[in-house]
Amino acid sequence: xxxxxxxxxxxxxxxxxxxxxxxxxxxxxxxxxxxxxxxxxxxxxxxxxxxxxxxxxxxxxxxxxxxxxxxxxxxxxxxxxxxxxxxxxxxxxxxxxxxxxxxxxxxxxxxxxxxxxxxxxxxxxxxxxxxxxxxxxxxxxxxxxxxx
Length: 148
Hints:
Elements: H1 2-13, E1 16-18, E2 21-25, H2 27-40, E3 47-48, H3 50-66, H4 79-85, E4 90-99, H5 104-112, H6 115-121, E5 128-134, E6 138-146
Parallel strand pairs: 3-5
Antiparallel strand pairs: 1-2, 2-5, 4-6, 5-6
């Protein structure tokens, strides 16, 4: 039983490989930093969610492959549609995207310096998150709350 759990966790935190290259799942690496930011503001910790991770990875891959940068997918998809496609049943959903930041500290600093992105990270109503990075330092973070 323990080996199954360890194997499942390894699969969850392993990089997601897509046709265009690696999509790196940084949710595990970001958990402590993100929750430290939230704790400074008296907010509850977030947990990484595999459905949001898949939705984030799909959007990052789409942007990399099709060469665009937007909250709207190349097929017109919205964050809500992408989350629902991965069976994430939400009552709250938001998305931060970034491009060019070379590491986790840079992207979190960038988002915390932007009022809209900061608001998403500090939203007291969210409980789950995902963070991925695609080729060319394309970042996608989804934050949500399921089953409200």
